[in-house]
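Request: Show me your protein:
***
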Amino acid sequence: MNEQLIILAGTAPGAEVEWLPADLSGQALGTVQRGALSTAAAMAGDRRVVVFLPAELLILTEVTVPGLRGPRLRQAVPFALEDRVATDIEALHFAFGKPDAEGRIEVAAIERVLLDTWLAALRGAGIRPAALVPDCLGLPWTDGASVALVGNRALLRDGPAAGFAGEADMLEPMLGARKQALPDMVAVTDGVAVPVTLAGVPQMRLVDGLLPWLAPQAADPALNLLQGEYAPRQRRRIELGRWWLPAALAAGWVLLALVAWTANFVIVSAEHRALRAEVVETFSRILPGEPFHDPRLQIERRLTGGTAGGAFLALLDAAGTGLAGTSGVQLGALSYRGGTLELTVTAQRAEQLDQLRDQLASGSRYEVSIESASSRGGQVEGRIQLRGAAGR
C-alpha cells in the first residue's frame, strides 16, 4: 500500500470534506477536491485512508505516569486526568502519544459517543480509516510551534502530540498562556496563502488549501485516535503479536489433549465391544434361546421370579456344592426349566461324572441323573439333571 487518501473532515459528520490522494511521503498525486464523504470514498480504493478531525472535538493534554507501559498505562491515564475533564471518564476514549524518558505522555480525550458517530459515518460511506488524527497535529513541527490560519480558524501545534484549534482571535491569548513566542504563520484563504505579520515575523507559503501542509505528517501521525478497542483489525493483530506464541502453545496443548482423548475413546470402545460380546456369549450359555435385551434384568428376574426362582436358587446352590467337591470336572453350561436344573459338564474320565452325580445326590433332597455322556476330543461331556423334590 504505497498510496494514501488524506481526508480533512468538516465540523460535523454530515458536512462536506476535502480530500487529497498522496504517496507515503505526502507528495500530492492529484488536486484537493471538496464534496460529500461518499464521493471521497470512491477515491479510497486500496489506498490507506487517514482522516484529520477538527481538533475542537477533543482535548489535548499531558500527564506524567512514570514506569508504566501497555495495559497498565491505558488503565492509569484516565484516572490521572479525572480532575481535568468535566465528563465522566467512563464516557471518554483516551489515545496516547509516546511517553518520554520522564514518563510524560501526551493524551487526547474524546467522547465515545462522538467518536462512534464519526466512525459510523465513515463506515456508512464505505471508508475504514487507518488513522483518525486531530488536524492541528497534522501541522509540521520540529521545535517551538507551528501555526496555520484558515479563515477565522487558528491551528497550533507546539509539541509532538500537543496543540489546539479555535477562533483566530484566541491565538495570541493561547500562546500567552503557554508562554511561547509567536511562531511563523501562514494564512490560507481560498487556496492561496497570503503573508501574515504577527509580532513582526512575516512568512508566506503558496499552498492549495490546508491539506498539502498536512499530507507529509499523515503517513506517521504523532497520535492516532484509533487505539485500544478502536484499533483497526490489522493493527490489533500487530499489537497482539506477542500473544501469538502462548496462544499457539495453548492450541497445541488442546490439540494433543484431543488426540489423546480420541485414542483413549477408541481403545475403550473396543474394550466395550469385546466385553459386550463376552456378556452375550455368557448369557446365551446361561439362558439359551432367550432373546438378549437387558441381561442383568433378565437374569435377576429368572433368579428371583417367585417360587420357581426360589427353587432354582436352591438347585443352583446344590450344584455349586457338588461341583466344588468333585475334582477334574468343569461346568460348561446350565439351564433351568420346569423345576429341573441341567448341567453340561466336561471331565477327563467317565468315572468323574459318576463321582459328580454321587456328590450331588449325597445328603441332598434332589433327584440326580446322568442324561447323556459322550467322548469328544479326549474328554467326556455329560449332561446331569437335578430335579426338584422339595417335598421330600
Q: What stands out?
A: Residues 189-207 have pLDDT under 50 and may be disordered. Residues 300 and 307 are 14 Å apart (CA to CA).
